[in-house]
Amino acid sequence: MTYYPKPSARTQSRTLPKGRSFPRQRRRRSRRLLPLALLGLLLFGSGFLLGSTRVPSPLSQPEERTDLPAQIAQEPIASSTSPGSPAQAADKDTWELLLVNAEHPLPEDFQVPELTALRGGHAIDSRAYPALQQMMDDCRAAGLEPTICSSYRTRDKQEELFEKKLDTLLQQGYSPEEAEREAARWVARPGTSEHETALAVDIVDAAYQILDQQQEQTPVQQWLMTHCAEYGFILRYPTDKSDLTGIGYEPWHYRYVGTEAAEAITEQHLCLEEYLRDAPT
């Protein structure tokens, strides 16, 4: 008898007569591949339809400045006023527009706000702190060295400073009446100082820490006078507004009033007294 080798499974799969079904193993493999093929077609179709839609990378998203108040971090700093136009409407009762001067002493029921401690034993109203910190950081980033030399003061501290100035003037030969009047031009009487509101800071250049008119020539003051309104601060006692403020020129005294008021005051060359006086009631 002649022996014929049995054909392999592979040979059988190739030589199956027409009409015969594929082996069971081949049918199972086809069932597994079918869902994968359908999924591939689905992904290809969706990619074709959405191909023009570009999902931005997280690195391309704008950086959120969480260290600024909402009005600064989320809104562009801009003003709808122009020089010479009427002052913007102001709510005189808001905390940042509290007017304090010789004619408007602190209210009897004034409560010292929550304070944020600063370096050197200083402090400021916590609501104004983020703007102050950002302004100082940006000033330093410009290669300058701003230094806070005075900030929040208690009533007792203000009394101490006023009496010290008064004694100095008396020793210089001023009469009691003249000394009282002159002292009030440079150191506010207790109860009438903006420093008691915790909204004012005296900032000087680290390279020149003398509180005189030459302070305005320092790089720090030049930068602050140009940019302070962007952070909601104003130069509170300009050189030509002493008759209105009752305080002599202080090119180091900055007061937080909020960005809207600061922009209007700076662009229209006003002092706080004028801004509040002209604002609609």
Q: Give the second-level CATH assignment, the architecture of the largest domain.
A: 2-Layer Sandwich
Q: How confident is the prediction overall: mean pLDDT?
A: 77
CATH level-1 class of the largest domain = Alpha Beta
- Strand pairing plus helix content: what structural class? alpha+beta
Number of domains: 2
Task: Evaluate the radius of gyration.
Answer: 37 Å
Question: If you had to describe this structure to a student in words, what would you say it looks like?
Answer:
This protein has 10 helices and 6 strands, in the order αααββαβααβαβαβαα. With 281 residues, it is an alpha+beta fold. It folds into 2 domains: 70-153 and 193-278, Muramoyl-pentapeptide Carboxypeptidase, domain 2 (2-Layer Sandwich), CATH 3.30.1380; 155-190. The strands form 2 sheets. Strands 3-4-6-5 form a 4-stranded antiparallel beta sheet. Strands 1-2 form a two-stranded antiparallel sheet. The longest helix is centred in the first third of the chain and has 26 residues, at 24-49. Mean pLDDT is 77; it is low at 1-27 and 43-89.
What does the secondary structure layout of this molecule look like, with pairings?
Layout: H1 9-15, H2 24-49, H3 70-73, E1 115-117, E2 123-125, H4 129-141, E3 146-150, H5 155-171, H6 176-186, E4 200-205, H7 219-227, E5 233-235, H8 242-245, E6 253-256, H9 259-267, H10 272-278
Q: Can you give me a brief rundown of this structure?
A:
By secondary structure, the chain is of the alpha+beta class. It has 10 helices and 6 strands. Helices cover 38% and strands 9% of the residues.
